[in-house]
């Protein structure tokens, strides 16, 4: 696990390059990646297209007819000197209700047994933590988060599931993720949120962004069902603190 | 307002335009046509703007009925197109009339055919694009592939005369697809023998390939220190090599990030070629530098712009 002394600029074909700052999953490196992306997009560098942040790298699409590889690399190098967390806009905290255990959190008991904890304790520890979204991706709207207490560190499933329902709140390694669409999965499902992280029918289909904080609010099955009904009717507003705050 | 009536949809016919770039950072791929060049030519043959939405037909084409007089163009895979049962030419603008039925059959060569219709298909824009992303149920018609009895709204068309592609520019899609590859981003995670294998051997297209990725089979590509990386962004054309040493090329509907090593990236101007390789067909990779790739890109854009008579 290292932070490179110099950023690496890795070609990704003729229209993209990857800026890599290290080989570890830390808030420090990720904050520099998010700050670099923010500065690059704010600067509106001609020829720069979309950008994809991840743990320790930023994928930058560019139009080589407008900006050359070396010129773009020089610009990125310069922006990196300013790419500190302070340049980022204020963070949001998004509250997600989560129904732990039972048929929605169908691996809570197995995960608890693996961790040597009671299921209630596992759910409580999980719900108490403050989660940070490093980036959103793989499938639309899926957040890659850390923030769990060390006691919840758990090896991934040895046999990944073929289908995981959307909204499944799950853990693997030191990470927590929420499946956004039905997909295969290797994380332990502890619960489910009735909130849609990806809603293709909405004007803005994506709920969470890189840099957000997430808090889980434990709910029972009755409240889960009630919120599902509100979500289906388009009348549920998730609670968000910070920029773009909502007051239910 | 006139409609295009789908009498029979074929296995996977979707509405595509140039795609919706800008949302990969939240996990939504740009989608758009798998063979961008063939798609652009179809629009240009009938003086549509490049951004007009048309149809991408996969392996077996649809049967479509027109409700007014329109120019249309068919490009890409050879699906033996007919209008009212009579063979018509691909790669040139055609005029159809109300009640005419266009039928595309099974692909005789290539995989994906494109149908452009003057005025374009005007389903609602979703995040700035009409492209269909089936896995994400986004865009197109209700986020899905077309079905029998769908009616697609068409836009108003201007006056235009049909044009045709220079006959010597019509691609054949036969033989071994030759694809330019820039090494990286994780070429340092492969042995010299692994890298040599990628460029020396031919790889075969597997039937499990789709709009997300092309699964290939061939000589083993040997890793150093395993195939897992800390997940990062995946560029269009990225050649991901997983544990079995076999490559997967990530395409228009790809996942935005992934945790596997990527040995190289197929250049943008050759993505269309891979989109037309049938299962069992063979591909050959050729190593180029970034500078060479940029020179080839300029050349390919010039060729495309000069291809229509």
What are its keywords?
A: Cyclophilin, seven-stranded mixed beta barrel, four-stranded antiparallel beta sheet, globular, B: 309 residues, Cyclophilin, six-stranded antiparallel beta sheet
Would you give an account of this structure?
The complex is a heterodimer of chains A (248) and B (309). Chain A has 248 residues and is an alpha+beta fold. Chain A has helices at 27-43, 69-82, 108-115, 119-128, 221-232; strands spanning 3-11, 16-22, 48-53, 57-62, 93-100, 131-136, 143-146, 161-164, 168-172, 175-178, 183-185, 188-192, 213-218, 239-241. Chain A has 5 helices and 14 strands. In chain A, the strands form 3 sheets. A 7-stranded mixed beta barrel of chain A has the order 5-12-9-10-7-6-13, surrounded by 4 helices. Chain A has a 4-stranded antiparallel β-sheet with strand order 1-2-4-3, with helices on one face. In chain A, helix 1 (27-43) crosses helix 2 and helix 3 (108-115) crosses helix 4 (119-128). The model of chain A has no long low-confidence stretch (mean pLDDT 94). Chain B is an alpha+beta fold and 309 residues long. Chain B folds into 2 domains: 3-163, no CATH class; 177-305, Cyclophilin (Beta Barrel), CATH 2.40.100. Chain B has helices spanning 36-45, 192-200, 271-275, 290-305; strands spanning 3-8, 13-16, 54-58, 63-66, 70-78, 82-83, 86-87, 93-96, 101-103, 109-117, 151-153, 177-183, 203-205, 213-217, 228-233, 238-241, 247-250, 257-260, 262-266, 282-287. In chain B, the strands form 4 sheets. A 7-stranded mixed β-barrel of chain B has the order 12-19-16-17-14-13-20. In chain B, strands 7-6-9-4-1-11 form a 6-stranded antiparallel β-sheet, with no helix packed on it. At the A-B interface, strand 2, strand 3 and strand 4 of A face strand 15, strand 19 and helix 4 of B.
């Amino acid at each position: 696990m290292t932070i490179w002394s110099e950023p690496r600029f890795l070609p990704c074909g003729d229209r993209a390059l990857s800026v890599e700052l290290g080989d570890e999953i830390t808030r420090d490196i990720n904050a520099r990646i998010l700050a670099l992306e923010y500065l690059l997009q704010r600067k509106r560098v001609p020829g720069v297209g979309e950008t994809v942040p991840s743990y320790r790298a930023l994928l930058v699409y560019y139009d080589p007819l407008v900006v050359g590889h070396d010129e773009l690399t020089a610009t990125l190098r310069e922006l990196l000197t300013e790419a500190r967390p302070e340049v980022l806009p204020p963070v949001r905290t998004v509250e997600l209700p989560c129904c732990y255990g039972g048929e929605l959190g169908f691996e809570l008991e197995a995960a608890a047994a693996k961790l040597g904890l009671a299921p209630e304790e596992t759910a409580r520890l999980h719900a108490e933590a403050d989660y940070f979204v490093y980036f959103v991706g793989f499938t639309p709207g899926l957040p890659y988060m850390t923030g769990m207490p060390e006691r919840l560190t758990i090896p991934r499933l040895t046999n990944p599931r073929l289908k995981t329902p959307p909204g499944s709140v799950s853990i693997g390694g030191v990470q927590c993720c929420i499946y956004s669409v039905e997909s295969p999965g290797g994380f332990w499902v502890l619960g489910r949120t009735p909130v849609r992280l990806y809603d293709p029918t909405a004007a803005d289909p994506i709920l969470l962004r890189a840099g957000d904080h997430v808090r889980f609010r434990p709910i029972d099955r009755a409240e889960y069902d009630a919120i599902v009904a509100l979500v289906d009717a388009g009348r549920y507003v998730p609670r968000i603190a910070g920029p773009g705050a909502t007051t239910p | 307002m006139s409609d295009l009536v789908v009498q029979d949809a074929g296995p996977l016919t979707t509405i595509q335009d140039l795609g919706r770039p800008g949302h990969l950072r939240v996990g939504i791929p740009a989608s758009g046509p798998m063979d961008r060049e063939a798609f652009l030519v179809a629009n240009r043959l009938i003086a549509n703007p490049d951004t007009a939405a048309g149809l991408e037909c996969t392996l077996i084409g649809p049967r479509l009925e027109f409700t007014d007089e329109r120019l249309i163009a068919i490009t890409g895979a050879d699906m033996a197109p007919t209008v009212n049962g009579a063979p018509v030419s691909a790669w040139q603008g055609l005029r159809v009339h109300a009640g005419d039925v266009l039928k595309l059959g099974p692909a005789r060569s290539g995989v994906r055919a494109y149908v452009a219709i003057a005025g374009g298909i005007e389903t609602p824009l979703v995040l700035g694009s009409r492209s269909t992303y089936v896995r994400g149920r986004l865009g197109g018609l209700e986020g899905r592939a077309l079905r029998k009895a769908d009616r697609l709204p068409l836009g108003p068309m201007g006056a235009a005369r049909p044009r045709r592609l220079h006959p010597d520019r019509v691609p054949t899609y036969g033989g071994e697809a030759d694809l330019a590859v820039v090494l990286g981003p994780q070429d340092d995670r492969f042995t010299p023998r692994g890298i040599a294998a990628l460029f020396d051997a031919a790889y075969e297209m597997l039937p499990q390939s789709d709009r997300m990725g092309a699964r290939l089979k061939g000589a083993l590509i040997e890793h150093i220190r395993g195939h897992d990386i800390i997940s990062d962004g995946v560029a269009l054309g990225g050649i991901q090599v997983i544990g079995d040493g076999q490559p997967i090329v990530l395409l228009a509907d790809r996942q935005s990030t992934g945790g596997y090593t990527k040995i190289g990236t197929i250049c943008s101007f050759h993505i269309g070629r891979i989109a037309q390789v049938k299962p069992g067909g063979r591909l050959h990779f050729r190593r180029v530098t970034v500078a060479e790739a940029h020179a080839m890109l300029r050349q390919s854009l010039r060729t495309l712009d000069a291809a229509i008579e």
